[in-house]
Structure formats: C-alpha cells, structure tokens
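sorry to bug you again but im stuck and you know this stuff better than me. what follows is a protein written twice so to speak, once as letters and once as structure tokens for the fold. mainly i need to know what kind of three dimensional shape the backbone takes. anything you notice is useful, everything is just below:
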Amino acid sequence: MKRAELFSAVAHEMKGLGFKRRKSNYEYVLDLGPGFEGWCSFADATKGEKTALWVATFVGVRSAEIENRILAWCGDVVPGWDGRFYVPTVSMNVGYLAPESQWREHRIDLAAHSVEDAIRPNLSDVTDIALDFLREHASYAGLAAAMKLDRGQLTERTMERLPIALALQGDMEGAHRELAPMRRQVDEAAYLAPRYLRYLQGFETEFPLERLREE
C-alpha cells in the first residue's frame, strides 16, 4: 500500500461523514451552522521507519467572527500568517479529549496492513471523539469551554481568542479579565507587544467595559 492510497481512502470516508476536503487529503471541514465550521486534520510522520507511518488526528472548531476580528485588529490570524491561512479557533489532538488525556497517534504498517485496517484507528478518532466535540462546541460558549480545557493547545492562540469568545457570548467582565496575560506581555515589552497593543486597541474599541458598566 502506498501513502497516497491510504489518504485517498481517508478522503472517501470523510466525505461519507459529511466533511469537505480542503487543499489536500489531510484536512477537512464540516459546516456546523452559521459562523461555525468543524475542522479535522491528519498529520503523518515516518519516524525513520521505511514502511510505517505514524498518523495523528486533530479536531477543531473555527468561528469566522473571532478569526475575522483578529485579522482586522492584528493584520494576520497568527503572527506571520495572513488571511490566506486557515486557522481553527480552537484545536487539539483527539487524544486530549479521550479519558487518558494525552497525545495519540497510530502506527500504520504500509507493507502489512490493508487499506481498510490502516485507516480504521484514525477514522474511529473522528467518529468516536471528534464528531461529538464538534457538535458540542459550535457556539461561543462551547469555544470558550474548550479553550479553558487547556489540553494540547497553543497558549498564544488561546490568549487572543478566549476574550473574544467570552465577549461575543455576553460575558464582558470575564472577557476583560482574560486580557490580563496580554497586558503583562505589553508591560514587559515582549516580542509580540506591538501585536498585542493593536489587539487591545481593537478589542477595547469594540467591547469597552466602562461603557457597559455605565449602561
């Protein structure tokens, strides 16, 4: 079995689950309703084995409202990644959502496994874990809850996205509290301080806490 055959089979099965392929057979999206999109991705590595692949499954939810604000305020969705890049608002390896809460990947022997046997573990990640996660977190409250899990996520991305998710669900006090780490980065003149200043200006213009207190 060739690597291309493996991921072609994955693409077929993901289509059957309602996903649409993005730019390759490694990344898929699922409509979760207005403004929200589910995301699944597969990452493979050889780890020095000629006939084996290690394949990990990732799951995430993207909010257009959140990502568009970050792009408008900061100039890119992630430092160095402009609007052409697709970034889930929250994402993680599915293993962190399983009872063991740890990194998960599956070893596939391209020489010994059939295509059906090879793709089964990663597809089970999708059907048994990822789909439930997507359905449960396709809202601002759901996104905020997922980000607060703090399991296998990038702190810098969560720091920019959690305040917006809270603000959009109406928790303005909580949203402004979550800005504290970013303010510390600015005070300490961290290398991302200019970016965070732009973010804070954009956030406080759209979601001013003082005005809400007066109302």
In short: The chain has one domain: 3-153. The longest strand covers residues 52-63. The beta strands are 20-21, 27-31, 36-45, 52-63, 90-93, 106-109.
